[in-house]
Amino acid sequence: MALHHRRWLPRACLSTIASRNTTTLFKTLMQKGLIDRSRLWIYFCKEFSKNRCESRGILTLGGDKSEHFVDGNLTWIPMSQEIVYQVWRAPLKAISGSHLRSDTNEISSSTVALSLARVIFDTGSGSLSLSEAIKGEAYAAIGFNWTAILSGAHIPRCTEFNSSWAVTFDFGERDDAEGRHAVRLDGAQLARPGFAGREEFCYPPFDSRGSYRFGLFGTPLLRQFYSVWDFGAMDVAGYAPRVRFGKLKADMRP
Q1: Number of CB atoms found within 10 A of residue 64's CB
Q2: Is 185 a domain residue?
Q3: Are the CB atoms for 123 and 9 separated by under 8 Å?
Q4: Residue whose C-alpha is closest to residue 77's, from 174, 183, 181
């Protein structure tokens, strides 16, 4: 059986970080045998403003409605192994960027290779955060000057957020033999108006997290995809979580 809800979109919580002496809704449904798969699917919404959905999203518990939302195949994101799974944590091995250079009218591409980097996916977060150790290089890869943004010398206009640049996050361990697990976003997808209190300015695509080689990816990335959060088993002891992202069909995109 699959359950659907068109308005309430919870965090995709694992039971180990639930409130003390409580059981998450999804774990309760699994324990009672009310769903047929240990998966939940999230479509955020079409209208999105100020880190909030302005139209209805859809939450599917147990079933699979990807044929209604996804254009093409879904990309599996491998999770980091933990003794006890607490969060949806994935290894990040590289960040690639490309941008159209105004001086030569040519595409410039570069890759920031990472070691021991980890990203947490959080459906309740409104940020796309990188640590200071890698953020400057990530900005340079997409043609932005982070130092100028940080000092206030450059405030990004929303007209700068277009398809002339893109960022690709390459997930998995460096020696991953299963192939590439990559998610790509172009500048238009990362536009968030309202920076500095003015609609013509957009928030810089990445903000800061203090931990070394750590990222927190929330709605700026997640709302661009139809996502499945697969616990891997009905009982906590057997959890083997994975996340899948599917490119949204044109009429479903924000």
Answers
A1: 13
A2: yes
A3: yes
A4: 181
Cα distance between residue 68 and residue 168, in whole Å: 25
- Answer whether residue 195 is part of any domain: yes
Q: Looking at the DSSP assignment, which residues form a beta bridge with residue 53?
A: 48
Strands 128-131 and 207-209: parallel
Question: What token pair was written down for 28?
Answer: 């309760």
* Cβ pair 171, 217 in contact under 8 A: no
Query: In this structure, is residue 34 part of a structural domain?
Result: no
**Type of residue at 232:** G
- Tokens standing for 12? 């995709």
Q: Which domain holds residue 75?
A: 71-246
The answer to whether the beta carbons of residues 119 and 215 sit under 8 Å apart is yes
Residue 128, in any domain of the structure = yes
Contact 251, 43 (CB under 8 A): no
Total number of domains constituting the chain? 1
| pLDDT tens, position by position, 87-139 | 889 999 999 999 998 888 889 999 998 888 899 998 888 899 998 888 999 99
CATH label of the domain that carries residue 239: 2.40.70.10
Question: Between the CA atoms of 153, 158, 164 and 169, what dihedral angle is there, to the nearest 10 degrees?
Answer: 80
pTM greater than the 0.90 cutoff: no
